From TrEMBL:
GO terms for molecular function: phospholipase activity. Coiled coil: none annotated. InterPro entries: GDSL, PLB1, SGNH_hydro_sf. Residues 1-24 form the signal peptide. Gene3D superfamilies: SGNH hydrolase. It comes from Circinella minor. This is Uncharacterized protein.
Length: 384
C-alpha cells in the first residue's frame, strides 16, 4: 500500500512538472520563437473558432497613438534639431503596436503575419502626420500605400471614427489579394486619449462626454456589422493618460519649451495639464466612463453575435506612472515611444486568448522582458 501511494505521488508530481513545462513553453521572448500552427482540417465556421492563421485581413482605427505619431522621438542631426525636426511631425505607422508591418517590428500585425504570411492590411513605413481637429480631418497626408488599413488619425476623437470608416471600408474592398465577402478580418479600435484632453478648455468638450463617446463607438461598431462581413472587432480600453503629467513633470528629456523643464509640449497638447489636480482627476473619471461604455457595447453585441460577426473587449489597465521615461517619445512626452508600443502589443496580444473572466483585473506593470504568448493548435481568439 505504501509503495502504491509513493508511486501515485510521484506520478502526480511528474504530471504537474510536465504541465508546468508545457505552459512555460507557451510564452516566448519573440514571436519568431513560437512554433507555427499545424494546418486546419476545416475552415472556421464562426468568430468563436478563429485562430491567428485564419485572419486574412487586419485593420485598425484610433488616434495618434495607433498612427505611431512621434514614435521614434526627435532624431537630432537628421532632418533638423530639437523640436524643429521632421521626426516631430512624423507618424511611424509601420511600428504601430496594433497594426504595424515593418520588418522585425513588435506589433500585433506582425504577430498575425507570423501565423499567416499572406495577411493583408498592415501599415508600413512612415510619413508626415495626418491631422484631425474636432470635426475637421485633413487627409492630405494620408498615404494609402503605406497606411493600408491603418485608418487612425492623429488628433482623432471618437467623433472622427466615422471619417476613419469612410477611408477604411473602400480601402479594404480594393485590396487585391482578398475576398472581401468570405475572408476573416480582425479590426482593432483604441481611442479616447484625445477625448480626455479635450474635456478642458476645448471647443469640442461637449463631444467628449461618456454618453457621446459611447454613442460614437457604438455607431462605428454598428456600421462595421452592417458593411464588413466576417469580422471580429477588438475594442481596446481607454488609457488613463492623466498619469503622463506626473511621469514627465520637470524632465529635461521631454524637450522642454524655452529651456524650462516645467514647460513641456504635452502641457499644450493636453489642455487639462494646464489646470489643477481636479482637472486630471476628471480625466480619469472620463476614462473609466469610456471603459464602462465599451463594456456595455461588448455586452450588447454579445447578444447579437452571429456566424459572421463578433465583438470582444480588451481592457487596457496600464499603469502609465510605471513607464520608464525613455518609453515615452522625447518629442513631447505625451505619445508613447517604441518601447511602449512594443510592450502594449504583447500584453494586448496575450489578452486575446483569454476569456473576459480570466483577464487580470490588476494594473499591467511595464516589463522590459515581457513575453509573448504562443497559441497552441486548440487556442482561439476569445469573445466570451
Amino acid at each position: 500500500m505504501l509503495q502504491n501511494k509513493i508511486i501515485a505521488s510521484l506520478m502526480v508530481a511528474l504530471t504537474a512538472s510536465m504541465q508546468f513545462t508545457v505552459n512555460a513553453q507557451q510564452f516566448a521572448s519573440s514571436i519568431s520563437e513560437c512554433p507555427k500552427l499545424p494546418g486546419r482540417t476545416s475552415p472556421p465556421t464562426n468568430p468563436r473558432d478563429l485562430r491567428p492563421d485564419d485572419i486574412k485581413v487586419i485593420a485598425a482605427m484610433g488616434d495618434s497613438i495607433m498612427a505611431g505619431f512621434a514614435l521614434e522621438g526627435v532624431n537630432d542631426g537628421k532632418g533638423g534639431s530639437s523640436i524643429l525636426n521632421i521626426s516631430s511631425i512624423t507618424e511611424y505607422r509601420g511600428q504601430s503596436w496594433g497594426i504595424g508591418g515593418d520588418d522585425n517590428a513588435i506589433t500585433i500585425g506582425n504577430f498575425v503575419n507570423h501565423y499567416n504570411s499572406s495577411v493583408e492590411g498592415r501599415s508600413k513605413g512612415s510619413h508626415l502626420a495626418t491631422i484631425c481637429h474636432g470635426g475637421l480631418c485633413l487627409d492630405a497626408f494620408r498615404n494609402q500605400k503605406k497606411d493600408v488599413l491603418n485608418a487612425a488619425l492623429s488628433g482623432g476623437l471618437a467623433m472622427n471614427l466615422k471619417d476613419e470608416l469612410d477611408y477604411l471600408i473602400p480601402r479594404m474592398k480594393k485590396l487585391p489579394n482578398i475576398n472581401f465577402e468570405t475572408d476573416w478580418k480582425l479590426i482593432t479600435i483604441q481611442i479616447g486619449s484625445n477625448d480626455q484632453c479635450a474635456s478642458c478648455l476645448n471647443p469640442f468638450s461637449g463631444e467628449v462626454t461618456v454618453d457621446k463617446y459611447s454613442g460614437y463607438l457604438e455607431a462605428a461598431v454598428e456600421r462595421i456589422k452592417k458593411e464588413i462581413p466576417r469580422v471580429l472587432v477588438n475594442l481596446v480600453g481607454s488609457f488613463n493618460v492623466s498619469a503622463v503629467y506626473d511621469l514627465t513633470k520637470g524632465q529635461e528629456y521631454c524637450r522642454p519649451l524655452f529651456n524650462n523643464p516645467d514647460a513641456i509640449l504635452n502641457r499644450v497638447e493636453c489642455s487639462c495639464f494646464l489646470f489643477d489636480d481636479e482637472a486630471r482627476s476628471n480625466m480619469d473619471v472620463l476614462s473609466n466612463g469610456y471603459n464602462q461604455g465599451l463594456i456595455n457595447i461588448y455586452n450588447k453585441y454579445k447578444d447579437q453575435e452571429s456566424d459572421t460577426f463578433a465583438v470582444r473587449y480588451t481592457p487596457a489597465q496600464i499603469d502609465i506612472s510605471g513607464f520608464p521615461l525613455e518609453g515615452m517619445s522625447n518629442m513631447d512626452c505625451f505619445h508613447p515611444g517604441k518601447l511602449v508600443h512594443q510592450w502594449v502589443a504583447k500584453i494586448i496580444w496575450n489578452s486575446l486568448f483569454l476569456p473576459q473572466a480570466e483577464i487580470p483585473t490588476s494594473m499591467y506593470q511595464y516589463k522590459a522582458d515581457e513575453k509573448v504568448y504562443c497559441p497552441a493548435e486548440t487556442d482561439r481568439f476569445r469573445v466570451d
